[in-house]
Design a protein that fits this description.
Blueprint: H1 3-13, E1 19-23, H2 29-37, E2 42-45, H3 48-57, E3 63-66, H4 75-78, E4 84-88, H5 91-103, E5 108-113, H6 127-135, H7 137-140, E6 145-151, H8 160-177, E7 185-191, H9 198-203, E8 208-211, H10 213-216
Parallel strand pairs: 1-2, 1-8, 2-3, 3-4, 4-5, 5-6, 6-7
Length: 220
């Protein structure tokens, strides 16, 4: 199957309310352009430097999503162009995003990354911590940050019951958090589900899936 055929397959299969983020990390610009020429515009990267290089080389109507773990000192490089930062897992990061956003007079859309997996290797905050952030005066003082939703990564396992439990927990957390409305938090997005588990994620309420290898082929 070619990249355009794979994209067509996902677009016909996913419900209309679900946004497809094509995860293009480690993939060359030619592959991204194949997807672009097939009409796709939303791409996900997990390294700031790689995403910045691609942004500079590729068409400017691409929406770049930062889906990886983010270091505070790298924020400044992507703030001029990033569409959505998925992996915000601490207040310190929001503070830096706000600071850099102010420099560019640009409000940055963010998702709070909730730790739903049992693996220690996964990043994210607890649901309680996310609640604290959304209720905090600190957040309401940030004029250049907009919290758009939540993101989570399930445990890497074949145990479907386990994954379902984690996805359901993220959906419950989202429902609870979205009651905290403020000038800079308006939760609409649940980013969960990847190539191996996106169908289950959508069944559990996801409206944004991150798919890479099933579109672009296995990574080297």
């Amino acid at each position: 199957m070619t990249i355009p055929e794979n994209l067509k397959h996902f677009k016909s299969e996913l419900p209309e309310n679900v946004t497809l983020v094509a995860v293009s990390k480690t993939k060359p610009n030619e592959d991204i352009m194949e997807a672009y020429n097939a009409g796709h515009r939303i791409f996900g990267e997990n390294k700031v430097q790689e995403m910045t290089d691609k942004y500079e080389a590729l068409p400017k109507d691409i929406e770049w999503h930062m889906i990886g773990h983010v270091q505070s000192n790298k924020i400044k490089y992507m703030v001029p162009f990033v569409s959505l930062i998925h992996g915000v897992d601490r207040m310190k990061l929001l503070k830096e995003i706000n600071k850099q956003g102010e420099k560019h007079d640009r409000v940055i859309n963010c998702l709070l990354q909730i730790k739903i997996a049992e693996e220690d290797s996964k990043f994210g905050m607890t649901d309680k911590k996310a609640e604290e952030i959304l209720k905090s005066d600190t957040l309401s003082g940030f004029k250049f940050v907009n919290i758009k939703g939540v993101m989570g990564m399930a445990t890497f396992t074949d145990d479907e019951a386990q994954i379902k439990k984690e996805f359901s927990f993220l959906k419950t957390t989202f429902d609870k958090l979205k009651t905290y409305h403020s000038a800079n938090s308006n939760l609409e997005i649940i980013s969960m589900g990847m190539s191996g588990d996106y169908q289950l994620a959508v069944a559990c309420g996801s409206n944004m899936v991150r798919i890479g290898s099933s579109i672009f082929g296995e990574r080297d």
